[in-house]
What does this fold into?
Amino acid sequence: MARKFRFRLETVRRLREQARDAQRRVVADAVRAVTRVEDRIARLTRQLHDTVDRFRDAQRVERLDVASLRGHQIYRSWLHRNILESSEELARRQAKLDYERAKLAEAWKRVKAIEKLRERQWKCHLTEVAREERAASDEAALQMYIRRRVEHEREAVA
It folds into this structure.
């Protein structure tokens, strides 16, 4: 019976996989945060374009409402400021995402390294098992040869 394969660093492998999976969740959260900010920028940009269109329409009438035009101008300024702030936030979140992705790549490398080591040990185990099986087979063949030889000699003497 061949001995069972036992990878002595199995606990280390599992811990590295858990760390990698945790980092994957962190990266996923960072991606969602970047997406939320991108969506906010897109929404604010659409609102800005709509406001500009409404402002142009308001200028086409014969009577201009100064208060309304001033309101549009203030709202546009607010949208510009929010777009700028959101763009800065996006840059920060993108930098964090890049950092977290680099950490994830490192975690993948650590898991891959231990998996390569496990694979090498598995191959060595298979080679050793095959060698043991060949030795057992050779021993059985030798015993059978000796038994036949002894029987043949007994028959020759009798």
In short: The chain has a mean pLDDT of 91. The two ends are 40 Å apart (CA to CA).
